[in-house]
Design goal:
327 residues, eleven-stranded mixed β-sheet, four-stranded parallel β-sheet, 9 helices
């Protein structure tokens, strides 16, 4: 379905306008603290279907529902004591909780699973949109399925122009990587996807949390669990051991921190001059968007320490490096 996409500054008037579009079954891209989301009324089956159509997203990949307050969770899912403890500690924030869903949630949202992911975003624009819309909003990242997530309105426009009704421009996202996803639907809490809330912070509240282990029979339980995801069009690989930087203009480089020797050409991005993981996470997708636009032969990425937000960054880069080249 072709739509007349408009980009609007996220002021009070335009948020109200976008909220009406949501209530009327339309699509609105909006900022959160993690990445921009592509939102629709989570309880409107046709509106939810339009998310999958706009993103060209497979129906087996479930969506996350955004809510504005904890009381909405009880309408949509079966809460428990651990969910309340985690919500008190980390909501609003970059944490998605997967719980047994209630019948009110369309099966398309959960891709036929009996669970659903929910979170309260830590972004004033997103929260006001949710409050004014008056409905829970299903919102995956506002980009074509499998490709780079958007962290500003321009990224959304470049990728989804003609597929979304309104893009609310709220500037750059502060966290820069998607939410951490934790499943509370079983006997033991499970980390399904590392994200903007570090595993170390989670363990201060939930020391018993286990890591997700996929088997061939496992259905996709949450977004971002497929073998490749978050990918630039340009192939990406990691630095090999003892590999030297080459001054070849058909190569692009993604550095974690400022290298001792920089390429003489300008086809490189530095995630953090000082090696700060939070800054690196904020800059990750913007840097990859820039390098992807150069149309070089390959992007060579420096590995990051898999601690704190480094775990989430490496999750995205590893998945990006596994993108099939015939897609």
């Amino acid at each position: 379905m072709q739509r007349d996409t408009i980009v609007l500054p996220a002021n009070a008037e335009n948020i109200s306008r976008a909220a009406k579009v949501i209530r009327d079954g339309g699509l609105v891209a909006f900022p959160t603290e993690t990445v921009y989301g592509l939102g629709a009324n989570a309880l409107d089956l046709l509106a939810v279907a339009s998310i999958f159509e706009a993103k060209q997203r497979p129906s087996f990949d479930p969506l996350i529902i955004h809510i504005s307050e904890f009381s909405m969770l009880d309408q949509l899912a079966e809460s428990n004591d651990i969910a309340k403890i985690l919500a008190d500690a980390f909501w609003p924030g970059p944490l998605t909780l997967v719980l047994k869903k209630k019948e009110i949630v369309p099966d398309l949202v959960s891709s036929g699973l009996d669970t659903v992911g929910l979170r309260i975003p830590n972004n004033k624009i997103a929260l006001r949109l949710l409050q004014e819309a008056g409905v829970p909003i299903a919102a995956p990242s506002a980009n074509p399925f499998g490709y780079l997530s958007p962290t500003n309105a321009q990224h959304v426009y470049e990728q989804l122009n003609g597929r979304v009704d309104i893009i609310l421009d709220g500037g750059d996202c502060k966290v820069g990587v998607e939410s951490t996803i934790v499943s509370l639907s079983g006997a033991v809490p499970v980390l399904l996807r590392p994200g903007g809330l570090s595993l170390e912070d989670l363990k201060t509240i939930l020391p018993q949390i286990e890591h997700y282990k996929k088997t061939d029979a496992t259905m996709v339980e949450a977004p971002g669990l497929l073998p490749w995801h978050y990918s630039p069009i340009t192939p990406l690989r990691f630095f090999e051991e003892n590999e030297e930087i080459q001054d070849v203009e058909d190569l692009a480089y993604l550095f974690f921190k400022t290298p001792g020797v920089k390429p003489r050409h300008s086809n490189f991005e530095v995630l953090s001059d000082t090696g700060d993981l939070a800054e690196a996470a904020t800059n990750l997708f913007t840097a990859l968007h820039k390098l992807d636009s150069i149309n070089t032969r390959i992007i060579i990425a420096e590995k990051l320490p898999e601690t704190g937000l480094g775990l989430a960054i490496m999750d995205r880069l590893i998945k990006a490096s596994k993108r099939p080249q015939n897609i």
